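> forwarded from #structure-qc
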């Protein structure tokens, strides 16, 4: 029997709420960068260093959440609903404990970790200031990770859109008030950006709690009902997610190293790259959404015992992903200065950023299908394979970045061509594994 989720319409129904949620989440990223771009280049650069350091640490929890999502999707495909609640509850316990460890690490040890790698004293101090406010949101962020794993895993993704919209609206308002000190609020600069994000995440958590308790149909999953700790479930989730945790940490940690390399090229190069990072992530939104949907669709198909559906699903998602990114590419090429004007009013900085924007626009096309194939590998639950694909790709990527930026001293736009190397390697290795690997034999 053909599942509805193997059709284009079924794929779209799961994907579009994720697109909306990611758009809303990226409003946070865009507004922080845009506001700090008007405070100064040091604050703009520091938000990249501090932000990526935080996100790299956060990705340990997000990786665990992805493992939980894969398990929840597999149980959903099996119609084993009772296990879903137990997976969710125990994921919350683990994520809270992990959040506590990471909070203590960042709050007390981040100055010692970052100091040796940052040349600019101004960027270093601003990065630490940002982190000491931002880290208080780690508990809320990991709670949201658990809810995201649940809703994406069962294929009911609409709450993600609303929770992200709540977070975006709160962050924009508080960022405007706290960064600049408007309407009598304290002028906190980069610290205000960190505090606004924490409060915004808290509002998102409150929304998830309200909507989950109000939805009577979710009672079949047993969320919050079987509250006893089950080490077996945590271990089973970790067997899948530990590789995802390492993979995501390496991935975002790799981007953090990428920015550390760029910081050595000067404060202007760092400011340019933070604008590019923010614009890049925003422009990637449709593909990220389809990538997340791919995890669930592949895992659901395998849970139903229909491994023959995996490759057709992947091809259909790629078609939708490419179709979604082409208008984004066209808009960027036609109106590049409009996009850059969101982030800075400095015409010299805008012109310095323009060549890099053109470079990453081309990389978006590669990303639109290479990342889908990689997430199909992730959805098979062979997360050890996906981790090694990511790790090998990152090593090649960072070596290329170091050679181009530091050894050969090329302009920052040329450094960003390393994105082509990254997606080329990631997609090629994923395609090879999907075509020739024994992924369909994995039992979870």
């Amino acid at each position: 029997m053909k599942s509805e989720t193997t059709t284009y319409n079924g794929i779209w129904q799961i994907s579009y709420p994720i697109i909306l949620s990611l758009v809303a989440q990226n409003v946070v990223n865009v507004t922080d960068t845009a506001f700090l771009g008007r405070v100064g280049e040091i604050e703009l650069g520091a938000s990249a260093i501090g932000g990526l350091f935080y996100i790299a640490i956060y990705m340990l929890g997000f990786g665990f959440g992805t493992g939980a999502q894969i398990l929840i999707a597999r149980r959903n495909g099996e119609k084993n609903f009772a296990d879903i609640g137990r997976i969710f509850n125990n994921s919350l316990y683990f994520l809270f404990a992990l959040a506590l460890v990471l909070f203590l690490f960042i709050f007390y040890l981040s100055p010692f970790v970052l100091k040796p790698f940052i040349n600019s004293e101004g960027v270093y101090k601003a990065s630490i200031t940002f982190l000491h406010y931002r880290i208080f949101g780690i508990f809320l962020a990991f709670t949201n990770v658990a809810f995201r794993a649940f809703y994406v895993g069962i294929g009911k993704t609409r709450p993600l859109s609303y929770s992200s919209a709540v977070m975006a609206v709160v962050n924009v308002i508080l960022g405007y008030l706290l960064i600049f000190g408007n309407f009598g609020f304290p002028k906190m600069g980069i610290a205000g950006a960190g505090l606004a994000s924490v409060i915004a995440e808290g509002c998102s958590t409150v929304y998830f709690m309200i909507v989950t308790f109000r939805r009577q149909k979710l009672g079949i999953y047993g969320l919050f009902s079987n509250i006893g700790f089950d080490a077996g479930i945590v271990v089973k989730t970790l067997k899948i997610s530990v590789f995802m945790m390492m993979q995501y940490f390496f991935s975002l940690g790799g981007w953090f190293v990428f920015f550390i390399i760029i910081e050595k090229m000067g404060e202007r190069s760092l400011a340019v790259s933070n604008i590019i990072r923010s614009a890049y992530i925003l422009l990637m939104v449709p593909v990220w959404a389809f990538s997340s949907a791919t995890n669930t669709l592949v895992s659901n198909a395998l849970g139903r015992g229909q491994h023959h559906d995996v490759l057709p699903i992947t091809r259909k998602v790629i078609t939708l992903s490419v179709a979604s990114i082409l208008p984004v590419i066209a808009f960027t090429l036609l109106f590049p200065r409009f996009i850059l004007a969101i982030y800075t009013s400095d015409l010299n900085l805008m012109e310095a950023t323009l060549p890099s924007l053109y470079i990453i626009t081309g990389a978006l096309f590669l990303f639109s299908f290479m990342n889908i194939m990689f997430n199909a590998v992730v959805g098979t639950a062979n997360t050890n394979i996906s981790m090694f694909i990511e790790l090998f790709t990152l090593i090649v990527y960072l070596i290329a970045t170091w050679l181009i930026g530091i050894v050969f001293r090329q302009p920052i736009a040329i450094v960003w061509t390393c994105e082509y190397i990254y997606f080329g390697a990631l997609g090629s290795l994923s395609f090879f594994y999907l075509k020739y690997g024994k992924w369909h034999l994995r039992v979870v």
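QC bot note: The radius of gyration is 21 Å. Residues 41-78 form the longest helix (38 residues).
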